[in-house]
Write a structure and sequence with these properties.
Number of helices: 6
CATH class of the largest domain: Mainly Alpha
Helix content: over 70%
Distance between the termini: 24 Å
Number of strands: 2
CATH architecture of the largest domain: Up-down Bundle
Radius of gyration: 38 Å
Order of helices and strands: HHHHEEHH
Shape: elongated
Length: 320
């Protein structure tokens, strides 16, 4: 039973790591899409600055600043694409494939996965104590240690055995040439009780019992340590998940505001009622807000998975 539960704990660890790397790869893909969007926006701003410069209503510094922003967006796009390739290679290795394996990640439409398993932290702690395979393995090891102790104690007790035997033999008897060789049949049956009382074994049984008791105590401490570790992991991951859930909505509001601000700044610049500085600031704010939103999504999903794995609800047994 301990071996089975340790196997389940290993599966849980592998599943959690693979799913985490999947969401990191998904976040890297979203970063590439966001970088492309920012590059398109900076190209539009550059075109507007060049048009205003050609018409004599904007200085050359506006064009140079817009070119800098466009070059920076190209740099960010290349870096995001490199991080995507790296994260996909790591995910491929998690799945037992070559890092060069080609596969398509599902489109991130920001649909949030189910959280029905999330309850109050006290209920989650109790659920983890009942279902986490690491605790179940420690409990099985403790039960095995107790069984070994009882077996060692039993070796010093008298042994009562029921014994019995039944035999039947047939063999020829030689009475001489006149009588021939008739067969002689013999029956033998008995039943009885046998008792064995150990008197002295050179203290070997005493030391065996002491060793078994120490092993039981070690397994009791291991069970307490496993329970404490799981409880700590559940508590920490629950708090992180709750914080990330709150921040998720905040980043959505920030991103929407930054996008509206950039669109307004772009129109104002085209109309000549604002400077290139306001436009580039709005571009930077939009880029930072987009990356912040992507990180928040990835952190929320990772925190959700970590909470599920620390409770013990993630694994082969969870696959429908």
């Amino acid at each position: 039973m301990a071996a089975i539960q340790n196997h389940q704990a290993s599966l849980l660890s592998v599943f959690a790591a693979t799913a985490k790397d999947y969401y990191l790869a998904l976040a890297a893909k979203s970063s590439v899409d966001s970088a492309r969007e920012i590059q398109t926006a900076t190209k539009t701003s550059l075109d507007a600055a060049e048009a205003r410069y050609k018409n004599g209503i904007a200085p050359i510094s506006d064009v140079l600043q817009a070119q800098t922003q466009y070059a920076q967006s190209a740099f960010n796009l290349a870096r995001a694409e490199g991080e995507l390739i790296s994260s996909q290679g790591l995910l491929a290795v998690d799945m037992g494939l070559s890092p060069e394996a080609q596969f398509v990640l599902s489109v991130d439409d920001e649909k949030l996965e189910g959280t029905a398993f999330v309850k109050s932290v006290s209920l989650l702690l109790e659920q983890a104590k009942q279902s986490h395979p690491a605790i179940a393995a420690a409990q099985a090891n403790l039960a095995a240690a107790k069984a070994s102790k009882y077996a060692a104690l039993a070796e010093d007790l008298p042994t009562l055995s029921l014994t019995g035997r039944a035999t039947r033999t047939r063999q020829p008897v030689n009475y001489g040439p006149e009588m021939g060789q008739p067969l002689s049949t013999t029956h033998d049956r008995y039943i009885g009780l046998q008792i064995e009382i150990p008197l002295f074994s050179g203290f070997s049984s005493f030391y065996k019992v002491k060793s078994a008791m120490v092993a039981e105590d070690i397994q009791e401490q291991a069970l307490r340590a496993a329970e404490q570790q799981v409880a700590q992991n559940v508590w920490s991951s629950y708090q992180i998940f709750r914080t990330n859930t709150e921040n998720l909505q905040n980043t959505k509001v920030i991103l929407n505001s930054a996008r509206l601000q950039f669109n307004a700044a772009q129109e104002r610049y085209k109309l000549g009622v604002t400077t290139i500085l306001e436009l580039t600031n709005a571009q930077s704010t939009l880029s930072n807000s987009s990356q912040q939103r992507i990180r928040a999504l990835a952190e929320w999903r990772t925190a959700r998975l970590q909470l599920a794995s620390h409770i013990g609800v993630l694994g082969m047994w969870a696959i429908k």
